[in-house]
Design goal:
By secondary structure, the chain is α/β, with parallel strands linked by helices. The protein folds into two domains: 143 residues, Rossmann fold, CATH 3.40.50.720; 184 residues, 2-Layer Sandwich (Dihydrodipicolinate Reductase, domain 2). The chain contains eight helices and 14 strands. A six-stranded parallel beta sheet has the order 5-2-1-6-7-8, with helices on both faces. It has a six-stranded mixed beta sheet with strand order 10-9-11-14-13-12. Helix 1 links the parallel strand 1 and strand 2. Helix 1 packs across helix 8, helix 3 runs parallel beside helix 5 and helix 3 packs across helix 8. The longest helix is centred in the last third of the chain and has 18 residues. The chain is globular. The N and C termini lie close together (6 Å).
């Protein structure tokens, strides 16, 4: 017996990827419903590459009663309005927006990192999916933290335009084309030209000069891994379609040689270590697209602190940063709490 699963925001980048991942991983679905706004009602969308087509339903008129799991990929406004309704109807929500992440009654889950925290879902029947840049980072940090206890993390991100949705991807494509033919590259989705450029600004600015994206990485890492870890982040949008990269510097309480860190990462769940100290012996965003792994390269000791390492981390932000992590949460939920007879 399988589950009745709802995908909210099924016509967007992440929603479509959720359907793909559900199909690829053969998640035990007896029934799948694709929900979106009234603009998409009646459209058809493919359930992965199964050839099975789903007719998109209007979320405004949907009854969540009798459904087991709802994967939300439609933004904070939709999550605020509909996740509590789904939860109250007995359907467990796994939400990809930022709205519930810091709610003390909502667990924030990366299955490879803090699976036991999922038990807290019963408070509201809602589970939060972390920010894409946070998710891949904590997967890489977890085995190292267990071995040597992390004191401080300094991270700079190189985040693809798909993190800003279809509009972001379209803008990079259109600006690149315009530049090649001599037309102006006018920004609309982003604050400045993104083609052949980088923008040190993701989400809104806060009073202290950081951005909300940087704040998310700080507070989400603490909630997932422990409040004692200090984190400072600089988040940058780069002209890459899919795949987030991160340069991570870590200071530990205890000594952790680079060779031992490499061994730990090689054996860690969800991590793929590609770290050859030669030309091309590392992973770039182009190579991670479509894959669920968090790739780590360039592991090396930092001689400027007593116990320090630096590393390079790359992952498909639409996969591990969003859709895959949500489906992995659903799998964990099924194994531990929603077993079907």
């Amino acid at each position: 017996m399988g589950y009745r699963v709802v995908v909210v925001g099924a016509t967007g980048n992440v929603g479509r990827e959720m359907l793909n991942v559900l199909a690829e991983r053969e998640f035990p679905c007896d029934e799948v419903a694709a929900l979106a706004s009234s603009r998409s009602t009646g459209d058809e969308i493919e359930f992965g590459e199964t050839g099975r087509m789903l007719k998109v339903k209007n979320i405004e008129h949907f009854d969540f009663a009798g459904w087991d799991i709802a994967l939300f990929a439609a933004g904070s406004d939709v999550a605020k309005a509909y996740a509590p309704k789904a939860g109250a109807a007995g359907c467990v929500v796994i939400d990809n927006s930022s709205y519930y992440r810091m709610d003390p009654d909502v667990p924030l889950i990366v299955p490879e990192v803090n699976p036991d925290a999922i038990a807290g879902y019963t408070a509201r029947n809602i589970i939060a999916n972390p920010n894409c840049s946070t998710a891949q980072m904590v997967v890489a940090l977890k085995p190292l933290h267990d071995a040597a206890r992390i004191k401080r993390v300094v991270v700079s991100t190189y985040q693809s335009v798909s993190g800003a949705g279809k509009q972001g991807m379209d803008e990079l494509f259109e600006q690149s084309r315009n530049i090649f033919v001599g037309d102006p590259a006018v920004p609309a989705k982003f604050t400045k030209q993104i083609a052949f450029n980088v923008i040190p600004h993701i989400d809104s600015f806060l009073d202290d000069g950081s951005t909300k994206e940087e704040w998310k990485m700080v507070v989400e890492t603490k909630k997932i891994m422990g409040a004692s870890i200090k984190v400072t982040a600089t988040c940058v949008r780069v002209p890459v379609f899919v795949g987030h990269s991160e340069s991570i510097n870590i200071e530990f309480e205890n000594e952790l040689p680079a060779a031992e860190a490499q061994r730990l990462l090689r054996d860690a769940p969800g991590v793929m270590l590609i770290d050859k100290r030669e030309d091309g012996g590392y992973i770039t965003p182009v190579e991670c697209v479509g894959d669920g792994a968090t790739y780590v390269s360039r592991v090396r000791e930092d001689p400027t602190v007593e116990n320090g390492l630096s590393l390079w981390c790359v992952s498909d932000n639409l996969r591990k940063g969003a859709a895959l992590n949500a489906v992995q949460i659903a799998e964990l939920l099924g194994r531990r709490h929603l077993q079907k007879g």
